Amino acid sequence: MSLRNIGIVYRKELVDSLRDSRTVISMIAVPLLVMPLLTIGMGVLSLSLVGRAMNETPTVMILGGADSPHVVADLNRLKDLRIVPARPDFAEEISDKQIRAAVEIPDGFEAKLAAGEETAVTIYKYEGELKSGFGADHLQRFFRDLRERTIREHLDARKLPESLVRPFDIRQKNVAPPEKVGGAILGGMIPYFVILLCLTGAMYPAMDLTAGEKERGTIETLLCSPVSRTHLVLGKFLMVLTASIVTALLSIASMAVSFDVGKKMLLAFTGGAASPALQITITGKAIAAIFLVVLPLAVFFSAALLAISIFAKSFKEAQSYISPLMIAVVLPAVAALLPGVELTPALALVPVLNTSLVGKEIVTGTYHWNLIALIFLSSSAYAGVAIAIAVKLFQREDVLFRT
């Protein structure tokens, strides 16, 4: 094997690819823009929309309550609610977002409260709708306060201590560092996007260096050069791998900077009230470890894309062949986001899923070095098989000259 010949092919393909604006966009521009837009842009937009919804005065409806005038009067005096007259089609109005929520006060509500009898208030809302949830929360808070006040009045009337109805408190205390909490919440998203960008960064070069050359009619000229086909395919493979690695590196670096800038912006926007998700921190050690586990996956993607693309007669046909590969990569990467899915020795052998799971652990600051080594070795084995298949296909005339 001649490393010189492989290097010549690699340099030739690298120069040609860098002259192509589409390759530069997929390899450099996309990873540099995706992470800032997702972290900073989406974060600020989400907070803005939630803040706007919280500042809106919810429109609610009171159902019943004719014999509970004091409760109805207290509800009408609330400044953070707008009460509208009761109508029989309240459920449809909530579903159509004409009102946000409704509360049904049962008959004899105040009398039962005074007598200490059991009763229930029903709050109707649009489950999953943000503004309806805020309206229901306002009503929930009012009746919770009313319940606490009623309990205190009954206890005072009987000269009993409040501890009688709540003899002890139940407290939960977090013992995990803030970065682990933030990593557990958002850590799964980071390797998912790195893997996805690693794949997309290699897609266009792989298709252009195989199906694209077939379509342009330049592959025949390349095959006539005094370079073996093994050297040709390895040179092309190194170019695709370069695109994948550069995309992965840029996406990881962009991700680290974006989270740092995004945290500062969101903390300033919320007045310093930090949520656990904002405690996520990406250290240099984490960046290096994520790159280490993504590297063999990038080799696997590059070889697999090259092998699939060589079958196609045109660039468009190559895109249709690669579409199923996108699904095969996205599904296991998304599976790592599901609750309860944790890294085990068995899952460490599942390609893509293993990298996504270990990336999630790395972001939280947990390093299972034995599983990281197992993932690296298994991914390297899959990558070696994919390279061997790509080299074998490049030596078949019926594949190279399909019509």
Separation of the first and last Cα atoms? 31 Å
**Major β-sheet strand ordering:** 2-1-3-4
Report the strand count. Answer: 4
**Which sheet architecture does the biggest sheet show?**
4 strands, mixed
Can you count the helices? 15
How many domains comprise the coordinates? 2
Give the low-confidence spans: none
Q: What is the residue-averaged pLDDT?
A: 81
The H-and-E topology, N to C, reads as HHEHEHEHEHHHHHHHHHH
SSE layout and pairing:
Elements: H1 3-18, H2 21-55, E1 59-64, H3 69-77, E2 82-84, H4 90-95, E3 101-105, H5 109-115, E4 122-125, H6 130-157, H7 178-186, H8 189-216, H9 219-223, H10 229-269, H11 284-309, H12 315-335, H13 353-363, H14 369-394, H15 397-400
Parallel strand pairs: 1-2, 1-3
Antiparallel strand pairs: 3-4
Helix pairs in contact: 1-10, 2-8, 2-10, 8-10, 8-11, 8-12, 8-13, 10-11, 10-14, 11-13, 11-14, 12-13
